Amino acid sequence: MRVMVIVKATKDSEAGLPPSSELLEEMGKFNEQLVNAGIMKSGDGLKPSSFGKRIAFDGASRTVYDGPFAETKELIAGYWLWEVKDMDEAVAWAKRCPNPMPGPSELEIRPFYEMEDFAEAMTPEAQATFDRVQEKMDKA
Q: Domain boundaries in the chain?
């Protein structure tokens, strides 16, 4: 099961406050444990939303908004991509994580859709396109 573990933003992360040396060391050790266990596939921290853009879609119309974005509780400060056997394993690993922020913070765990979730709607043409894209990504 693939999951995204989302580090929710806080006022400190949105202010661009850098992590302490201690937190960097703790997170480095935690990431190493995840990699050694074959769990972590990717992960990174994100710059504050003041560096970001949002693109709103309405039919054929596109509108671009510059950050910062107002609702801190709705923002993401970082993420991991994990491969776990089930949600219980993801929760167990997340509970071992050092607090990613100086104060109160949250992680959110969300499972990815897998191609079999779309089996009912998948046409042979769409499957061929997805297979080509996956093959190209695997080579990159």
A: 2-139
Q: CA–CA separation, 42 vs 80, rounded Å?
A: 6
CATH 3.30.70.1060 fits 2-139, yes or no: yes
Are the C-beta atoms of 6 and 105 separated by less than 8 Å?
no
Distance CA 120, CA 28 (A): 42
Least confident of 17-26, 51-60, 115-124: 115-124
CB 7 within 8 A of CB 100: yes
Q: What is the pTM of this model?
A: 0.88
- Cα 111-36-34 angle, rounded to 5 deg: 35
Section 103-128 average pLDDT = 92
Spatial distance between the Cα atoms of 105 and 72, rounded to a whole number of angstroms? 11
What the block records as the tokens of 62 is: 């596109």
Residue whose pair of structure tokens reads 């990174």 in the numeric block: 44
How far is residue 69's CA from residue 27's CA, in Å, rounded to a whole number? 27
* Residue 6 near residue 75, CB atoms below 8 Å: no
CA distance 33 to 27: 10
Helices (H), the chain: 11-14, 21-36, 87-96, 124-139
